[in-house]
Amino acid sequence: MYVILVYDIKEKRVAKMLKHCRKYLNWIQNSVFEGEITEVKLKELVAGARKFMDEEEDSVIIFKNRDQKWLDKQVVGVERMGTDNFL
Amino acid sequence: MYVILVYDIKEKRVAKMLKHCRKYLNWIQNSVFEGEITEVKLKELVAGARKFMDEEEDSVIIFKNRDQKWLDKQVVGVERMGTDNFL
Questions:
Q1: A58 in contact with B at a CB cutoff of 8 Å?
Q2: Chain B interface, mutation test: which of A62, A76, A80, most B Cβ atoms within 10 Å?
Q3: Least enclosed by CB within 10 Å: which of A87, B7, B33, B75?
Q4: Which value does ipTM take for this structure?
Q5: Are A22 and A86 in contact (CB under 8 A)?
Q6: Contacts B50 to A, Cβ<8 Å
Q7: Mutation site, A56, A59, A60, interface B, largest B CB count within 10 A
Q8: Is the dihedral of CA B79, B76, B14, B39 positive or negative?
Q9: For A46, phi and psi rounded to 5 degrees?
Q10: What DSSP designation does B84 have?
């Protein structure tokens, strides 16, 4: 399964969330990740995130697609993919 | 066509980008939009955004899907959809 994950997290928890998501997906922009993941691994990702999220304040949205070939991606401006190596 | 649009824009241009994107798509999270849009309208959105973006600093990623039914959306934590009415 191909997913896009976006989060909106209070600043004090951002570093933790970033580190957590990068174990499972590719970081492509500030608070945006994408990648192939199994249903089991995605559950693990969400359960792990819930442990430190404040669900009254923070938000994570996951868009799931059965097949990546149905998605086409257009990037305008800076491509952030390269920054993945810097953290 | 169903799209997800995410942006990472320097703060001084964020308000402008938000206002611009909301003319075309639904605002669902901090810097995330989704919705049905035609190819022509999407080109208009991108051309409009390019007028005030700094393409050395700012980034917009658009994920395109032919058919929304292939996408499944999971929200963890706060649902921000309601905030759309406040601005």
A1: yes
A2: A76
A3: A87
A4: 0.83
A5: no
A6: 76
A7: A59
A8: negative
A9: -65, -45
A10: G
pLDDT tens-place string over residues B4-42: 999 999 999 999 999 999 999 999 998 999 999 999 999
Residue A83, amino acid: T
Which residue in the set A53, A55, A71 is minimally distant from B63, CB to CB? A71
Question: Is A64 exposed, middle or buried, given 0-12, 13-18 or 19+ CB atoms closer than 10 A?
Answer: middle
Interchain CB contact of A67 with B (< 8 Å): yes
Amino acid at B76: V
With a CB cutoff of 8 Å and minimum separation 6, the contacts of A82 are: none
Distance CA B3, CA A25 (A): 20
Which position has the token pair 């994408």? A34
The token pair at A51 is 């442990």
